[in-house]
Design a protein that fits this description.
The complex is a heterodimer of chains A (288) and B (353).
Chain A: H1 2-38, H2 43-48, H3 63-69, H4 76-108, H5 111-125, H6 132-141, H7 150-170, H8 175-183, H9 188-199, H10 201-217, H11 220-225, H12 235-243, H13 252-272, H14 274-287
Chain B: H1 2-8, H2 15-28, H3 35-41, H4 44-65, H5 70-78, H6 80-83, H7 85-105, E1 108-109, E2 119-120, H8 124-131, H9 133-164, H10 171-179, H11 186-204, H12 213-241, H13 245-253, H14 258-269, H15 271-287, H16 290-295, H17 307-315, H18 321-352
Antiparallel strand pairs in B: 1-2
Helix pairs in contact in B: 1-4, 2-4, 8-18, 9-12, 9-15, 10-12, 12-15, 15-18, 17-18
The chains are: A mainly alpha (288), B mainly alpha (353).
Chain lengths: 288, 353
């Protein structure tokens, strides 16, 4: 009898907890929901009552979206395009070259490799403000200020975490597998690409997730390095440029539409690779 | 004496020969650590020489332990330009060279338009940086912000993780939602919240978020909580799932209450996660820039300016660039100390496991 009762108690306790968590989750989502609701309201209604639902008078359909997409006389799709190019190129470069370098560092172990590895770890600690001004000058003089060349800067700046994670994983791979490959006549290149690289898959995914999240959301580096006068903008740079100074004068509804549209790709990405993202983030946190 | 000659013979032995000879010596000498064995066969002087030679070779052999056999190493070296070259070059361009220039610039002052034209003036910039009141204000603002955010984020993230590991229905969905804000970048996040806060403040007051430093401070705290609780929660969940089941059972059998179990069994077991999360939130709070720029941009005045924003603003004017760079060096040392402490504690954790 007593046991049954305690089981029942346990069950009600869990139901209460579920309800409480559901309420908290709803509150957690409120900021994004508020933005979404307001994208359909007139600008004056956004300002006067942010938290009311649109009614027949204040509902404007997708008008805010069409004005928001061309805010600051810069088509927003261009910012999305440049952000995508930079993110994909940077992530690809980092994955390929950092994993190669990490294998070399882990297996060759010369003095040079040790110094290089130390410098990589060191670079993770340095705040961006330290290199901010010289980097923008160097990148300018080397013409690294376009969406197609800025990934080189990202490769250099993102090398620290990537190499650290790859070296950690490579050292856990038994060396005998590579020795077997080399006895079978594989040179270093074939050994790497046909034997080692496929084994790195879990770390490749983790690093890819971390780097994609970093590059996509990064503001300071592209705002300093990219040639803004030539019309190269990433999403965060575009949002910063269109909202500063004109905040208050700019149509609030349009601004919310802009913010909301820029969140959509992230949410889709998250829902598609949720499992990997959570794993990758946990791995990066423990290592870095 | 065969082995002695062999190891002496090549003046600058090839890596592979050394490896082989070491292997042989180690195999052939039954107990090279015991000088008595050697002494019985040879005179002491020679024995000592042999001993030294062996020590030398042993030291060299150590290098090979974690790496490849010599053949593969040599053929790998041929490809070093391909394996390490691209990263090395862009590492120099993207980090090392700007970093060294940064150190150099911090010893320059006056108008700095290009690095080539900057004039070395010693510690003048550092003196200016230490005399700058906004820098000190930013430091204290950041420190206070860091303390409050570290405590709140960790307590709330731990509570969320604890609740979600109790076999509650729908915990996967809750986890998904709690983590989501973490993926939104700082700039977007800042503008999103500035609109929400202004709307909220409009309901009760006539002030805006940027009119009052207290609102700005708590606004930043709420924003950071919203962004980072999910992240830290993931780390805590991993830690909580690793608590040994039999320990919890033993506590239950011994009649421990839920609270006792939490404080005496669970928390000591997730101590490593607590260390990691504390350091992560601490460094994140210290380096915070995007959110600060987008939410308040330091307003009112420069009262809600944090360290990173204070330094970045200094670079905008060519006259204060030297000072800003000096501040950046100070900032770097501050963050480096935090980071090194984190690395050391993480290492310790690895040893324990």
């Amino acid at each position: 009898m007593g046991k049954q009762q305690s089981l029942k108690q346990e069950r009600t306790r869990k139901t209460i907890m579920s309800v409480v968590l559901a309420v908290i989750c709803f509150i957690y989502m409120l900021p994004i929901l508020t933005i979404l609701i307001n994208t359909f309201k007139e600008a004056s209604a956004v300002k006067s009552s942010l938290f009311s639902l649109p009614n027949s008078e204040t509902f404007v359909g997708f008008e805010n979206y069409s004005t928001g997409m061309t805010a600051g006389s810069f088509p927003f799709w261009k910012a999305i395009l440049y952000s995508t190019i930079i993110t994909i190129l940077s992530a690809a470069l980092i994955l390929l070259f950092c994993s190669m370098a990490a294998w070399y560092v882990a297996r060759v172990n010369s003095v040079f490799c040790k110094i290089f590895y130390f410098l990589c770890i060191f670079s993770m600690v340095v705040p961006f403000q330290m290199v901010q001004f010289p980097l923008s000058k160097t990148a300018d003089s080397l013409k690294l200020n376009t969406p197609w060349t800025i990934p080189i800067v990202y490769l250099g700046f993102g090398a620290g975490l990537a190499i650290f994670m790859f070296v950690g994983f490579t050292k856990s791979i038994p060396i005998e597998i590579e020795e077997a490959a080399s006895i079978d006549g594989c040179g270093p290149l074939r050994t790497y690409f046909m034997v080692v690289f496929p084994m790195l898959k879990p770390t490749l995914i983790s690093v890819a997730i971390l780097e994609i999240m970093w590059v996509w959301n990064d503001y300071l580096l592209p705002s300093l390095v990219l040639d803004l006068k030539n019309g190269y903008r990433t999403i965060p740079v575009h949002i910063q440029l269109t909202t500063t100074g004109s905040y208050g004068q700019m149509n609030l509804g349009a601004m919310m539409a802009l913010i909301f549209v820029s969140i959509i790709p992230i949410i889709i990405f998250y829902l598609v690779c949720q499992k990997y993202i959570i794993k990758g983030v946990a791995a990066g946190a423990v290592k870095g | 004496m065969k082995e002695n000659q062999k190891s002496k013979a090549p003046a600058e032995p090839e890596a592979e020969t050394v490896a082989e000879s070491v292997e042989e010596i180690v195999q052939e000498l039954p107990s090279q650590d015991d000088p008595a064995v050697l002494e019985s066969e040879t005179d002491p002087e020679d024995a000592q020489q042999v001993q030294e030679e062996i020590e030398k070779l042993k030291k060299k052999k150590k290098v090979f332990k974690s790496g490849h056999s010599s053949m593969t190493r040599r053929s790998m070296r041929k490809w070093s330009w391909l394996f390490i070259g691209p990263v090395f070059v862009s590492f120099i361009i993207g980090f090392l060279w700007p970093f060294m220039q940064g150190i150099y610039l911090s010893f320059c002052s006056g108008r700095i338009t290009t690095i080539a034209k900057a004039k070395l003036t010693g510690f003048q910039s550092f003196e200016k940086a230490f005399a700058d009141e906004t820098f000190f204000h930013a430091f204290w603002f950041t420190a206070l912000f860091a303390v409050v955010s570290v405590v709140l984020i960790n307590v709330l993230a731990f509570a969320a993780a604890y609740a979600l590991t109790q076999n509650v229905k729908g915990s996967n969905l809750f986890r998904t939602i709690f983590f989501m804000p973490n993926l939104i970048g700082g700039i977007v996040l800042g503008y999103l919240w500035s609109m929400i806060f202004d709307g909220l403040l409009d309901l009760y007051t006539t002030t805006n978020l940027v009119d009052d430093a207290t609102y700005g401070f708590w606004g930043l705290i709420i924003l950071l909580l919203w962004q980072q609780i999910g992240y830290m929660m993931i780390i805590y969940i991993a830690g909580l799932q690793a608590v040994p089941e039999d320990m919890l059972e033993a506590a239950k059998i011994d009649g421990a209450t839920k609270r006792q179990t939490l404080f005496r069994v669970v928390i000591p077991n997730v101590m490593p996660s607590i260390t990691i999360c504390t350091f992560l939130t601490l460094t994140n709070s210290f380096k915070l820039y995007d959110q600060n720029l987008a939410l308040t941009n330091g307003k009112p005045g420069r009262l809600t300016e944090m360290l990173a924003l204070n330094i970045s603003n200094g670079f905008a004017n060519s006259a204060t660039r030297g000072m800003a760079q000096a501040k950046a060096v100070i900032f770097f040392i501050l963050v480096a100390v935090l980071g090194i402490a984190q690395l050391i504690t993480t290492r310790k954790r690895e040893v324990q496991q």
